[in-house]
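Supplementary Methods, section 5.1.

A reviewer requested that the exact input to the structure prediction be made available. We therefore reproduce it here, unchanged from the version used in the analyses.
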Amino acid sequence: MSLQLYFHPLASFCWKPLIALYENDTPFESVLVDLGNAESRAAFLAVWPIGKFPVLRDEARAQVVPESSIIIEYLAQHYPGPSVLLPRDPDLAREARLLDRFYDSYVMDHMQKVVGDRIRPDGKRDPFGVEQAKAALRTSYGVCEQALAGKTWAMGDHFSMADCSAAPALYYADKVVPLGDAHPNTAAYLKRLCARPSFARVLREAEPYFKLFPQEK
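The structure derived from this sequence is encoded token-by-token as follows.
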């Protein structure tokens, strides 16, 4: 099989390319990376020395493609399917990229700050930084709430790479700062995302690993 995706089922950024692959039924081999296992880690570092996943390897084209957003663009260019995740219109494509960056930078990153603090050793935690991250998430929720008014998906009626980014970002963010009743548009959007077959499959496959998700101390 030409395509191999190096990933971990619990990692939020890995969910993005998985959604894209499942959206178009793109054949690929999944390679689960366990960084705590010396053999698995060494095999992954041989592919991508930076050691961060996800990474897509395309044996047919002799390409190694890191970074979730770039993987989705690579798939759209070289392995297109019926679901056009990156709009062909340049202006719409730029808007999709902007929303992709928004969900990565202003939702996912703040969520990871909160979750990452939970696994810090005693005496090394950052409660002030956590509260800053939670406040930033609430601000981002407000932006989402306005942007999603009257829309089915992030770009409107068409599912795109922006939704591939929004799905894991909002799913995990809702665990640390619940959307609640204050953000009905965003909460309804997340519900639609979770019902989308591609993302529902990602969630089913991740379910055995959810017990590893760091809980608040």
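Residues 12 and 199 are 12 Å apart (CA to CA). These observations are discussed further in the main text.
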